[in-house]
Every structure is written in C-alpha cells, then in structure tokens.
Amino acid sequence: MAGRMTAPDPGTGPGADPGPGVGYRIAVDVGGTFTDLVLRRPDGTQLVHKTSSTPEDPTVGFVAGLHALAAAEGREVRDLLAGTDLLVHGTTITTNALLTGTGARTGLLTTEGLRDVILARQGSRDDQFASKAAPPPPLVPRHLIETVRERVDSTGTVVTPLYEQDVRRAAGRFRAAGVEAVAVSFLFSYLAPDHERRAAEILEAELPGVFVTASCRLVPEVRLFERTTTTALNAYVGPILRGYTERLARRLADLGYRRPVLVLQSNGGVVSLPRAAERAVETLLSGPAGGPAAVAPVLAALGLPQAMAMDMGGTSFEVSLSRRGRTETTSQGVLGGHSICLPILDIATIGAGGGSVAWATAGGMLRVGPRSAGARPGPASYGRGGTEPTVTDADLLLGYLDEAAFSDGIRLSRAAAASAVGALAERLGIGLTEAAAGIHRTVNAAMADRLRLSTVRRGLDPRRFALVAAGGAGPSHAVEMARELGVPLVVVPGAASVLCARGMLHADLVRYYVHSFAGRDPHPPATVLEQALNGLVQQAEADLREQGATGAVSYTRFADVRYVGQVHEISVAFADGTRPDAAAVADLLARFHLEHEERYGYAQPELAVEFVNVRLLARAPAAPPSPSPPRRVSGAAVPIARRQAWFEGGYREVDVYDLETLPAHRRVEGPALFAHPTTTLVVPPGFVAELADDGSALVHPATEALDAVLDRLRRGADPRPAVPAGAVPAGAVAIGAAP
C-alpha cells in the first residue's frame, strides 16, 4: 500500500544511516484530495506516500505525511528531519483561496481617474461569443478602490507629483474598512517607480500588519490592466500564504527541523518561505508546476523531442506541453478568470479527477465535473459519508481498481459505489454498469478534448506527440485518451501518482526579470539590449545570493517581439551561450518569423518589428544532484492476480501485474492491469505495455514494435492515419462543465 519504495536496494533500505554530509530530501505536494510525499534517500532510492489532505488546515496533513514517512523508514520523525538536508513544498492554498473567493479583504490604490481600471476588464469578455457570461467577482470591490493625485506620462516624465496627503487619507479609509492587504498600481510606474515606492512606504507605516504590494516591485512592465490585476492578485492571496507559511514553519521547528524549506512557484522554480509569501501570486500553480521537472529526464532517456504531459489527480486534470526539452511558458495567463502577466508554466486545468462528481442534467444527459467530492467526504466508495457518484466509484465498479489496495490505507467499498452510481443510473434510465462505463467515457472525452485543444490551437498535431500520464487517476484513463487522439505512445513514469512531488526534488532556484521598452525606444540597437539584460543579470546575482544559491547560475535571455501595429508579442529566446550582439539579434528575429508562422500560419519578414520587453531567466541548483536509483533487472513477467474488468462492452478476466516488480523489456499484451500502491495502469485490448530501464511503463499499439514507434516520434515523421471508426468505444454521452 502507500509508503513503499519505488526502486528498492537491499543494501540501503529503511533505517539505513544516511551517511556523513549527505541527507534525505523530502518533497510534499498538498493537493485538493491527497497530499503526496516523496522521500529521496542518499543512495537515490525513493519512498512514496499519499495521505488525505486536510483542507481546514493543510499543515495537519503535511505533518501526518512526515510521520508516515518516518514510520516507513523505521525512524522517529525528529530523527528523520534531523537527517534531512532539503524540504520542498508545493501547495494549492493560494489557488483554493482564489477559486473559492476566500482571499484577504483587499484594497487598491491607483492613479486619479483610473478607479475602474480592473472593473472595466478592458471592455471585453473572456469568451466573446458568450453574451450572457458574467466575469468573476472583482478581487477588489469598488468601494475599496482609492485614487491619489499623481501622474507620470508615457515617456516616464513626472507630470504631477505624488500628493502624499492623498495616500494618508486613503490609508485611513482602508483602516476603517478593515482591509488586510493593499495593492498599489500607478500609471506608467514601470518607467518611473518612485511614486509607487513612496506610496507603499507610507501605507506600510500607516497600516502596520497589512500586506502591501506595489506593481513596480512585482511586475514592472507595460499594460496597466494586467499589471494591476496581477498586483491585486498578489495582495488578495498574500496574507493567506503568509499565515500558512508561518504556521508551517512553527510546526516544522517544533519537530526540530532547521534546514531550508523551499516553495515551488508557478514558473517551476523554488524560493524560500519568506520570499514565497512576499510574491504569493507566483504560487498559484505551485503544485502542478512540479510535473515538468520530473517529465524532462523521462523524455530525455527515451530521446523524445516532444510530449503532452497530463496529471489527473483527485480534483483536477492538468495539461502541459514539453517541446525540445522545455515546457512552454506564458506571461499572459489567466487564473480564475483574472489576467496575470508574470511568467508561469503554460498549464491548462479543468475540473476532472478521480473525485469529480457525475450528475444528470434536467434533460437526462450525463455530465462529469467540474465539482469534486474532495478529500472529505470524498467518493462514496471511501466510506466517509459521501453519497454522490464519482469517477473513482465508476472505475471501481468497472474492475480497474483494487478495493483492498488504495491510497492512504483506504479500503474502497464496492457496495457504496454501487449505491451512488445506481442512483444516478435510475435518473438516467440505464443500468448500473452502463452508467459506470458512461462516467468513464465522459470524463475521458472531456480530458481528450483538453489535450486536443492544447495542441491543435497551436497548429500542432497530437499524433506526433507522446502522452506522459501521471496523477493517481491518470494511468487508469490515459490509454483510452491516446487512442481517441491517435497518440502512438503513452509513458507512465515510475511513481506516476506523485510525479509533481518527484519533480520538486529536481527544481532549481528560479527567478524571472523584465525590462520594458514600451515608452522607450521600441527599436533599440543591440548595445542597448545588451545593457538592459546585463542590468537584469546583476539583479539576479544579488537575489540568488540572498536566496542561498551556491552553485553555478545559468541565464536564458528572451525578447518579446511583435510586428509594428500588433497588440500582442511573442517571447523568443536568444541562442544559448550567446551575447545579445548584432548577430544574436538577427538570429532571434529570424526565429521570431518562424515562430510567428508556426503559431499563426503566416510570417511577414518584410515588415518592421519592435521590442516590447527583454526578459531574463536565472536558474541556480537548489541542492547538489543525488545518485540515480538502481536500474531494474530483466526476468519473466508473472501476474500477481486475475480480476474481472470491463473492456469492449463486457467484463473479462484479466491478468494483474505489479508495476514495482515487473522486469524491464518484457511485453505484456492487453487487456491487462498494472497495479501500484497509489495508481493502476489500465491497458485495453489492442495495446501492449513494457517497462523501460528507469521503471517507466511504455504503452503502444500491439500492431507496432516499440522501436518503430519511438523512431517515428524522434524523427517527427508523419503520423499514422486517424484512428478508424469504431476503435473508440461507442456511447452517446454528453460532455461539458456545470453551468
């Protein structure tokens, strides 16, 4: 069950001394349903555990997981933490605060005449064709928005000085209103930040204990609306994260832990606890952002140039693209309906997970999600009082899950699952098994659509990608999604259910910096670009030293470029290892035209281009690398059990294999189930599975050899014809989110 080693080494098992100067590393990823923990031993072997999350206070589940790891390792928790060098944490606390509307009571201070800057939302809708769609509730209600007399023009020239008495008057109103946080965002402050800085100083003095954040410190770049919403987001979730990190630090100190605690950011890097609280908006994708770091070495080992990575947990389904060794990022994202202009990994999320609730519309159509049963009460089969049917309940009834071996020691109840799904089946006028199969197909279709959108909207063919499946529920659904999309290879990494936590152990200290040319010369010579980037390098060196970085720092330089007259730009990286001189700029512009053509279907090299921003990504290792776990040995593939499972319209007796003991390079034909303490890989008929040396399961059509599939993906050759009709299980089901 939970807490078993993914790559055992008889020489250094539980209770072994970590050795002088080398310690454990622990990653803790707190999700909406489960808290995932990975302990990496000094010899590279790992211990994995999942425990139920505790939404009322996530530190409770966090500490409970540490106790479980210590028990599995044969140690007291204090002894385990005394031998731990590094603890990395991913959290959804800011995400939950944003999505549930439980952030801090926030005020906004802005330039006179711009009181409605975030309320107007640029006069547009997220979906231009949804005429009745309402925007999300504003982060700051209008009565908590104050303006002050000050003005800087588009060249950075001060037109009106800051009236400090206006700031003090606004502080008094904020105090009377009981605000917990204040965002400060003035017009053109990215060109001349002195007014914002002074206003923030006054607010901090007038409002002790109130969280104050200024846009010039957080996101000093063009676009007032996005800059203001990003700053307001930081203020909205900042006090929530600050309170949480302070509680967590106290609990860890009580357990004797004195080493660093690093928090994963939305850009895939890590920062210290105090820094995370200061820039809380950068943790809104904290948990899912750990996945790409774990996916990268898996793809590199297989020589795959690109893949879709999916993570299906208990509450949500996340998708990201890895191309040419990098996960795509964006600085123009939307989270919870609010624009954000800080660089974040381009991860798309929908409400589809093991805990997603299945329901019937008034017209008798089957829907799944986005609402989730969460950790408490959870799916009906958990036996914790839940009565609504979920994806987990359906998967249990279809035979894909072992009721006696589930995460966190939960024994699933088939009777409770049958009762919940049966009630839905009655409302739909269908049988129990038909309802369970319909739930499984419906959630698969919704997730396949999300994968399709993530590729097709970029002009990419999903059939040229591999699909990396992770999350506790992901491997149970991935192969059917791949079949629907025509994806030729599914990769299930070792310990896939805790992939994001595993990735946290690979995460580096990462900082992003930006220098805007809007309002300055949009056609700077190479020397000016180089000067601006060198200034950002100096900032990065100082910040990373403050964060405790000791290893070599690597830098990636970007430029945001667009054709003159365009509204949005494309971020293009300078070639690695090159100075941004004239030759490097010419190379960057050539690649801008190529990227523009790939993204939008055309390029116009004859047109003039302009530089909007230059950006710097600074990366330093958070900890020295540790040895890799021992490789698997070959042997016979022997099933550990047989079980009735639903395939192709009926129940069939299928073999069940143990993923932890299955030898490498042994083909197993479907239908078959591959069990792990925290997940199950479902391989339907027509597919075969085999393990790579690193423990990753590779699933592909039985009509092709694995080498042929890998070769085609490596070369980017034309995909096979689309999946023939009838290859995807039939069934009239409706797909969609709750209104």
Automatic annotation (TrEMBL):
A molecular function (GO) term: 5-oxoprolinase (ATP-hydrolyzing) activity
Domain Acetophenone carboxylase-like C-terminal residues, every copy: 526-691
Annotated region (Disordered), positions in chain: 1-20
Hydantoinase A/oxoprolinase domain residues: 227-510
Stretches of the chain forming a coiled coil according to its record: none
Pfam family, one: Hydant_A_C
Hydantoinase/oxoprolinase N-terminal domain residues: 25-206
GO biological process: glutathione metabolic process
Superkingdom of the source species: Bacteria
GO CC annotation, single: cytosol
Amino acid composition bias (Low complexity), ranges on this chain: 1-10
Record's protein name: 5-oxoprolinase
Lineage: Bacteria, Bacillati, Actinomycetota, Actinomycetes, Frankiales
